[in-house]
Design brief:
heterodimer, A: 86 residues, mainly alpha, Non-ribosomal Peptide Synthetase Peptidyl Carrier Protein, Chain A, B: 388 residues, alpha+beta, Aminopeptidase, 2 domains, 13 helices, 34% helix
């Protein structure tokens, strides 16, 4: 498990699962369909990603393709970091 | 706005697509963009669907009013536009309105914007649309973002982006004048229209039996109904004494008063000025009043230390007009009067604010501004009026 995924799971457990176990959450499971995040939770997630990983997330990037599962979020964060490093 | 993100029934043809598939399908091409005048019919349709649960073509009066407030406002600022959320198929499925506002904080001008009419069609299938719309609004060039009719979802969205809820300005006061008639009206409002009509005679009887005294000629203040010019002159004289006030020029003031007067649901709009018997200005207020109904206070602005007198004048006026109760947005300057007069306090739409100016935020949080009214969007017909 990458550091990004580990931090992300900890954030989800604390903020959206009320301290529940996020380790068992499949990486490709939809966070929206699971009822873990809604429109307000999305903003909390975006703020976390910006602060924790030093990202600037544009409005057009706030879409389910980037933010609706652990796998999508990790890929999104890694992709942003890769583009900054390039 | 009311600031609301409301659900709509799924549109015909969408039901066979499971929500996650639909979300993934559309999200790739969903986009936000500044609102254009030619979007207004679609926005009116959306507004009618979200807030009135009504299908079909929207009335022209609604389209015209949207144009008035979002494009023809004298303070319209193209750098602070309203935004639409456009789904992949090209339909407008979300909107956030931006009303311009010019304030002065301790004499310095503040460029502000009020979020209004935040709405998303079928938010379950567009779970990120409301968040994106509000984020786009709050990332505008304004120094202060305000909302004064936020429901729980909108309030939470604001707070997640960094905004703060102003508790005092999120409360509504209610002063009951004729308790029997007010009780009947509460029951009527909870009944279907045909049944409610049966209670109309009871309202009249209750109001007649509950009639209170007329204005006391010995009161140390005098309230007077005035025209736009006199009201604006009084408003600006009072505002000059306040830390936070509207920077209300004559053209904008007259335009906003005219717009507010077009709202009919709560009765006629009265522009009132309150002076001491010596002629010294104490304050002014705007109130909708109609005999037998609850008066709706749009704005109260009082000279420092004169909130009690201005509030007493308001209640006296509403009593003389035959209103059964008066209500309005709470503010620091009125708290003493509200408690003394036995007002009922309750939460109504939340007032939320966001600014990087810490001095301004502190002043807002301690209730230095008479929020609501022209500081928000309740003067527009979009809040609680009906369109035909």
């Amino acid at each position: 498990m990458s550091a990004v995924e580990s931090d992300l799971r900890a954030f989800i457990a604390e903020n959206f699962m009320y301290g529940g176990d996020a380790a068992a959450l499949p990486t490709d499971r939809s966070l929206i369909d699971e009822g873990l995040i809604d429109s307000t939770g999305v903003l909390e997630l975006v703020s976390f990603l910006e602060e924790k990983f030093g990202l600037v997330i544009g409005d057009e990037e706030i879409v389910p393709a980037n933010l609706d599962s652990i796998a999508a979020i990790v890929a999104f964060v890694d992709g942003k970091h890769a583009r900054v490093a390039a | 706005m009311s600031v609301q993100v409301a659900a709509l029934a799924a549109e015909a043809g969408e039901a066979h697509i499971a929500p996650p598939a639909r979300a993934a399908l559309s999200a790739a091409h969903d986009r936000l963009r500044p609102c254009r005048i030619d979007d207004l019919p679609a926005i009116a349709t959306l507004f009618q669907s979200v807030f009135y649960r009504a299908a079909g073509l929207p009335p022209q009066s609604l389209i015209a009013h949207l144009r008035d407030v979002y494009f023809d406002h004298p303070w319209h600022d193209p750098q602070m536009p309203s935004h639409v959320f456009v789904s992949a198929n090209g339909t407008i499925d979300g909107f956030v309105g931006a009303l311009p506002l010019r304030l002065r904080f301790k004499g310095e001008p503040v460029r502000a914007s009020i979020a209004g009419a935040l709405m998303v069609r079928d938010p379950a299938s567009r779970p990120m649309a409301g968040a994106r719309l509000l984020r786009s609004f709050m990332s505008g060039p304004q120094a202060l973002s305000l909302g004064d009719t936020a429901n729980w979802t909108s309030k939470t969205l604001w707070e997640r982006i960094g905004g703060r809820t102003l508790p005092l300005a999120s409360m509504e006061w209610l002063k009951i004048i004729r308790s029997a008639a007010f009780g009947v009206s509460v029951v009527r409002n909870r009944l279907p229209k045909p049944l409610a009509a049966l209670l109309a005679p009871a309202s009249g009887v209750a109001a007649a039996f509950g009639r209170r005294r007329a204005s006391d000629p010995m009161q140390p203040w005098v309230g007077e109904t005035v025209d736009d010019a006199a009201f604006l002159a009084a408003y600006n004289e009072v505002s000059a004494k306040l830390d936070i006030a509207l920077d209300l020029d004559d053209a904008a003031g007259r335009w906003m008063l005219d717009q507010a007067a077009r709202k009919t649901r709560h009765g006629q709009l009265f522009r009132r000025v309150v002076t001491a018997r010596s002629g010294k200005l104490l304050g002014c207020y705007l109130v909708y009043a109609r005999r037998g109904a609850t008066a709706e206070t749009l704005q109260i602005t009082a000279m420092p230390g004169q909130g009690d007198a201005v509030f007493a004048s308001l209640i006296d006026f509403a009593t003389a007009e035959g209103c059964i109760a008066v209500r309005g947005r709470s503010q620091n300057a009125l708290m003493n009067a509200l408690f003394k007069s036995g007002c009922i306090m309750r939460h109504r739409g939340a007032t939320v604010a966001d600014t990087k100016n810490t001095g301004l935020m502190t002043a807002l949080e301690r209730g230095a501004a008479p929020l609501g009214g022209f500081f928000g969007e309740t003067w527009t017909r979009l809040v609680s009026d009906e369109f035909a």
